[in-house]
Amino acid sequence: MPSSFAMTAIDFRRLGQFLTALVRSIALGAALALAGEAKAQDTQFETKAKQALMVEDQTGTILYAKSPDTLIEPAALAKLMTMEVVFHGLKTGEIALSTQYVVSENAWRTGGAPSGGSTMFAKLKSSVSVGDLIQGVIVQSANDGCIILAEGIAGSEQKFAEMMNSRAKAIGLKHSTFVNSTGLPDPKQRMSLTDLVALARHIKREYPEYYRTYAQDNFTWNNIFQRNRNPLLRLDIGADGMGTGYTEQSGYGIVGSTERNGRRYIAALSGLASDKERAEEAKRIFEWAYQAFEEADIFAANEIVGEAKVFGGVRSGVALKAHEKISILIPVANRDRLKAHVVYQGPLVAPLKADQQVGILRIWIGDALVQETPVYTAEAIDSGDLKKRSLDAVLELATGWVRQLDF
Fold first, then answer.
1. Under 8 Å CB-to-CB from 272, ≥6 apart: which residues?
2. Pick from 65, 183, 274, 311: most CB atoms within 10 A?
3. For residue 222, is it left (φ>0), alpha (ψ between -120 and 50) or beta?
4. Distance between CA atoms of residues 144 and 156, nearest Å
5. pLDDT tens digits, 349-399
6. Residues ≥6 apart with Cβ < 8 Å to 234
């Protein structure tokens, strides 16, 4: 008898090691109307931009994507990352809005009046506060303001670029490399639109008190009045950010953020032919998004979204939930093409803790995966007795537990 019990235990351990990774597809029943496979959008949109990405901010739903991971020269849009480093320093107390930095010869010549580029016209050897430099960079796209901040915070622009790369990695940017604070052309400086939109969303979420500056219409420094370079602010579309850029290689680009009736969209466009075309295409994609999509609430926070099979537990299943309310933007003309699945590797093996992440809820519109949300166990499941675990082992070997659960 002892040896037969030992063999059962060994078989169970080996089974846990070699179980095939099974995918569970859980239909969302009454919450979602499952539809046949079809193209992702009947609400078609085309843009002249070579690269484009449109995201609804609250849900993270991707509404439009065109080569969003292509690496481009970000031009002045790299200043969004410069500002993230500055805002992070303010948040952690490493610097203050009143901190003063001196305008160096390098900052003046490379980014100031002699450069012929975007500048706040800071005077050589004068002192400028961090608060004023932020306004110069955001409103006037000031290259001298960027370099003054970089040298003041890190000692040199090269060291500041290292801080930019470190912060980019920390906040989850995956396709970005920075070599300067201004976005001035350099073959090694690259970003993707995916990262630009992620960065814009991060700044809006983490630094709301500083994000307001992106909507500021104008700024005067050294007795020189300049308007905000973002054309969206003057188009009456609810825009309050964020920036523009141009290089000969990447063309005209923009990251825009708009809000209407409590719904915020963030878009990035690149590869446009002129500043006029940039403004027109940016306005057009935002107007399309507000007209073509509506929000649908799928699950409330902590609502049960399905059940996963459990191997070797006191119960054979565990309820799954999401921490946050799950909402999604769907095409107005195609409400019936929303579908979703909970995906996990299983069966799950007991014991399981409550609130343990075990899978992902994936939501599609037609064939397009538009949102992913982590799902967690809604309760703890203890290990069953040896008889229960042995029975589960037989069931797994015999059936593989390949089944779809409708509810």
1. 48, 49, 50, 251, 252, 253, 254, 278, 281
2. 183
3. left
4. 13
5. 999 999 999 999 998 877 888 888 999 999 999 998 866 666 666 654 554
6. none
